[in-house]
Amino acid sequence: MKLKFAFLNLFLGCISLLIINTKFISNAKGEELLKVELHNEIKKGKFLIGLKQYLGGEKDSFSIKKNIKFITDKGFLNLTSSNGIKHKSKEINISWVDIPNKNPETIERIVFGPFASYESAKKQAKKLKDKGFETTVAYPKNWEVWIPFEDDLPEFELKNKISRKINNFQITPVLRSKYSLMKLEGPIYISAQEDIKINGVNFGKNFYLLKDLYGTWTLVQKIEFDDYLAGVLPYEIGPNSPLEALKAQAVIARTWGIFNSDRFKMDKYHLCITTQCQVYKPPKITNKKVQKAIEATSNLILTFRNQPINAFYHGSNGGVSATAGESWQIQDYPYFKSIIDGSKSLNKNFKLPISSETDVNNFLDFDKKQFYGSNHSLFRWNKKISSFEIKEKLIKNKLININDDVFDLNSIERGFSGRVTKLAIQTYNVNKSIVLVKDDIRRVLNFIPSNLFTINKLSDDLWLFRGGGFGHGVGLSQSGAIEMAKLGFSYEQILNHYYRDAKLKKIEILSQ
């Protein structure tokens, strides 16, 4: 086996002499392309989006046989690598190889988590940082907080484990041609004048390959704000939504992206493309209504005290919005208020807070037609869940062992909007009671669409969860915004309804 890897190293080193149409560069332009300065890109009106993560590793579902193919129909592709390689071609193939490390490195760290959200992980990271620890917020599978391992560390209240990893191999990208391979180093910049197809999918014009914290790589797209929004709006609120709802979504998606642009700072890009950020897919065709909404609100963001707000949004609030502090383990923001989301007459029927199980049931029983967004499929929902299903979720999250059985569930604390903020789960082991807090409730019991629910025990083995809404309930309800737009509200009125005291402001984009 060692002989095999030694031969591979020799092969990769020697075969580089055979690369065709490859030049070495040291000019300022090439160096500038390879700089990945996240803050400056935002100033220029561009996001760096992590399109595909963990490339070259076990979780890589994008590389076909450990190979990524870049193709352009017109013109040429240009590749610039940090080890001084420049390559120009109609087609570029990059493969991943595992090269043995001459001196394997052992990495030891304390891992806290998993956390249900970036917000909760970031808060815990700040607490540890305030105590003098060097912290990293990471996302290997779930959100985690890392600190370097040291002897004589104090005991932590927060759940943690010691992680030890020996890096025997280095996942390395190589430029593959018909007759040769050449080792590349990151950042690797790939661009073209026309759109580039990557593994057969049309993505855009400017890309990086960047090494991440986990030893794997990320395919990153550099994209202007408005082009990014064209790939967000159709998948977040839907292209057929009313124009004013689309405008509202454009403003908050742009605002949210800017506020959260340090989310993947550790891996040198701004945002991902999943529900951990905002869902993004490269648009196959231009949607005229979506484009009109983006252009009408170009460079507009929501601000509070002249700073971008954390513009949370979700599918449906079930008729009452939540504060940030009752949805995540974070501070409250002054621009998020808990409101009854509907006609003015509704405020006469319900007074906040909604504090008891009875109050929540009465709220869920009320005529839903008077609420904004009541057409959403999960505006009201019922879930019959067996004790065995709950047990499976707890085992999967390593909260109980296989011999424990669920005995009882109780909502022991609710937030201002009636959402469950603490859920106690009792097992037959009398000494074992699990308390799930805020966003951990839906992370562990992921069959629950929202935290706005009541629990009824139907039998020893069956529970009825009865609730309303889909998502965390903070900020704009997309189904509510759609209905408000249909009723004639402008996008400014919609934003003012969901983000109290926030102001619209046009941001300045620096010329390049």
Structural write-up:
The strands form 5 sheets. Strands 1, 2, 3, 4, 5, 6, 7, 8, 9, 10, 11, 12 and 13 form a 13-stranded antiparallel sheet that branches. This protein has a 3-stranded antiparallel sheet with strand order 15-14-24. A hairpin with a 4-residue loop joins strand 7 (about 135-140) and strand 8 (about 145-150). Mean pLDDT is about 90; it is low at about 1-25. The longest helix has 17 residues, at about 245-260. The chain has 4 domains: about 1-100 and about 170-225, no CATH class; about 100-170, Alpha-Beta Plaits (2-Layer Sandwich); about 230-310 and about 480-505, no CATH class; about 315-475, no CATH class. About 25% of the residues lie in helices and about 35% in strands. With about 500 residues, the protein is an alpha+beta fold. Helix 7 (about 245-260) crosses helix 8, helix 7 runs antiparallel to helix 14 and helix 7 (about 245-260) packs across helix 15 (about 490-500).
Summarize the topology:
Blueprint: H1 2-15, E1 22-24, H2 28-33, H3 38-43, E2 46-55, E3 67-71, E4 77-81, E5 85-89, E6 91-115, H4 118-130, E7 136-138, E8 143-148, E9 160-176, E10 181-183, E11 188-198, E12 201-211, E13 217-224, H5 225-230, H6 233-236, H7 243-259, H8 288-296, E14 300-304, E15 307-308, E16 313-314, H9 324-327, H10 346-349, H11 357-365, E17 381-386, H12 387-396, E18 406-414, E19 420-427, E20 433-437, H13 439-444, E21 453-459, E22 462-467, E23 476-477, H14 478-486, H15 491-498, E24 503-506
Parallel strand pairs: 16-23
Antiparallel strand pairs: 1-5, 2-13, 3-6, 3-11, 4-5, 4-11, 6-8, 6-9, 7-8, 9-10, 11-12, 12-13, 14-15, 14-24, 17-22, 18-19, 19-20, 21-22
Helix pairs in contact: 7-8, 7-14, 7-15
